[in-house]
Amino acid sequence: AVLFGVSRTTAINAYRCLEQQGLVVTRVGSGTYVEELPAGREEEGRSVPWIQLMTPFPQLPLSTVLREILEVDFSGGSISLAAGMPDPALYPVELLRQGIAGSNNGINPVDLGHISTEGYGPLRNLVARMIADRGIESTGEDVMITAGSQQGLYLIGKALLEPGDYVVVESPTFIGAHQVFSASGARILSLPVAGQFPFSLLEDYLVRYRPKLLYVIPTYHNPTGRLMPENERRDLLKLAARHRLVVLEDDPYSELYYDEKPPASLKALDDYGGVVYLSTYSKVLFPGLRTGYVVAHPALLNRMAHEKQFIDLHSNNLAQWLLCRLLESDALREHLALVRGEYKKRRDALAKALRRYCGEELSFETPRGGFYIWCRNNRPVLSGRLLQQSAGEGVSFVPGEAFYVHPPEGEKEFRLCFVTHAEKPLQEGARRLARALAGIRRT
Ligand code: PMP
User: Fold this and answer.
1) d(CA 441, CA 443)
2) Phi, psi at 329, each rounded to 5°
3) 182: closest CA among 224, 400, 174?
4) Tell me: the pLDDT tens digits for 201-239?
5) Distance (Å) from CA 252 to ligand 1 centroid
6) With a 6 A CB cut-off, is 150 part of the ligand 1 pocket?
7) How far is the CA of 357 from the centre of ligand 1 (A)?
């Protein structure tokens, strides 16, 4: 790259293209190597040319950062603050057992056959009732049940985006969203969201590029934990209405508030009908349920249902039936009260330990809800390098670059998830992080 005067980003992108075609593998902190078939399987690669048979990605490169992280060896007593996952010890197993065993809850065999692509009717109605508490007016007809909100993102992309369309996302943002938009061939415009919402930049994008979609996580943002204040929400909707912009509001965390309740969602404040609302039970219950939902205009849901038919006909009935039991019995409300109390303690424990052990080295703000503390290295320490050092100390996190459309943006930032572990391991995690930072200072 140096020899031919190619920029570092171009070289990284070229490696990513090769990696996505399976021609090379990247090992974090080591380098990029030509992929070899495992011993004894060399013949397979010669008999069927799998790589050449595969369709190209519509738009390259897609980030491989998360896959790379999974390859770092954190075996043996390591504390992972990386995945955005609730604590399995808090999964409502007893409530589930009661839901399944309850005497009046015998499942109707009819419910085990095929159901409507949009989802199990009783659950769609219960979701509409549940989100009425968040000020969102809807009926079951406006709700589609999806296999996690990740599938909702995919279906919305399928229904609305074609190659060359523009999508605006916050920067940083949830990696699973910007990758799904990129995979549909859309071009991504990013809005920096540190501090005030950049309205003039957004307006500039709206006028110049006429984007199809704005994707936002207004409440306890992933990865920054930011909460969009109510006045910003109203201003955003006014601007969106003027430009007839579709706003995709992703809201997995709003029930996980640790101080006062968050402001009303964009969907609740929407009076021009342009907000599509997306949420999930992955964060408030457990991710293996694979159940999320989209609330949108029936015309959009209808098109999404056509796309969903191609991939799974409808989401899993048992998960939907179980959720109905939990929602009818108020079990979700009880569970939320429990986890809010617990996660608040964990947030405070991690924030305190970070200040105590890493004080000078890191900047962060304590989030008012959600799962994440977003840190910035005060010294010129790259988070990828810190992750390597941390692997040796037995703690992990997600480096900031994973959340940006244009790495190496975010190279000095990283995300810590504070809900997966109890207070003691969180404090130990902060201590290990401090040791990793000290280790880098010495080198
Ligand atoms: N959106 C956001 C903002 C998320 O943080 C996540 C999970 N990390 C998802 C969507 C996907 O969630 P699900 O498990 O429902 O697919």
Assistant:
1) 6
2) -90, 5
3) 174
4) 999 999 999 999 999 999 999 999 999 999 999 999 999
5) 7
6) yes
7) 31
Q: Cβ(121) to ligand 1 under 6 A? A: no
Count of residues making up the chain = 443
Does the C-beta of 173 come closer than 6 Å to ligand 1?
A: no
pLDDT digit string, tens, across residues 238-275: 999 999 999 999 999 999 999 999 999 999 999 999 99
Q: What is the whole-number distance in angstroms between the Cα of residue 371 and the centre of ligand 1? A: 12
Q: Hey, is 361 helix, strand or coil?
A: coil
How many other C-beta atoms are found inside a 10 Å radius of the C-beta of residue 123? 25
Burial of 256 (0-12, 13-18, 19+ CB in 10 A): buried
Atom of ligand 1 nearest to the CA of 150: 16
Burial (0-12, 13-18, 19+ Cβ within 10 Å), 91: middle
Which of 175, 415, 397, 150 lies closest to 289 in space, CA to CA? 150
DSSP 87-130: -GGGS-HHHHHHHHH-TT-PPPGGGGS---TT--HHHHHHHHHH
CB-based contacts of 306: which residues, under 8 Å, 6+ apart?
none
384 Cβ closer than 6 Å to some ligand 1 atom:
no
Annotate 171-234 with three-state secondary structure: ECCCHHHHHHHHHCCCEEEEEECCCCCCHHHHHHHHHHHCCCEEEECCCCCCCCCCCCCHHHHH
Does ligand 1 come within 6 angstroms of the Cβ of 427? Answer: no
Query: Ligand 1: does its nearest atom lie under 6 Å from the Cβ of 229?
Result: no
- pLDDT classification of 31: cutoffs 50, 70, 90: confident
Closest CA to 429 of 401, 399, 394, 402: 394
Q: Whose CA is nearest to atom 7 of ligand 1?
A: 84
Contact between 274 and 246 under an 8 Å Cβ cutoff? The reply is: yes
Sign of CA dihedral 237, 241, 245, 250: positive
- Does residue 265's CB lie within 6 angstroms of at least one atom of ligand 1? no
* Minimum CA distance residue for ligand 1 atom 5: 222
Report ipTM for this prediction.
0.99
Contact 138, 295 (CB under 8 A): yes
The verdict on the CB of residue 282 being under 6 Å from ligand 1 is: yes
Averaged pLDDT, 393-421? 92
Task: Give bridge partners of residue 246 from the DSSP assignment.
Answer: 213
Residue 217, ligand 1, Cβ within 6 A: yes
Q: Check if 291 has its Cβ closer than 6 Å to any atom of ligand 1.
A: no
Distance 45 CA to ligand 1 centre (A): 36
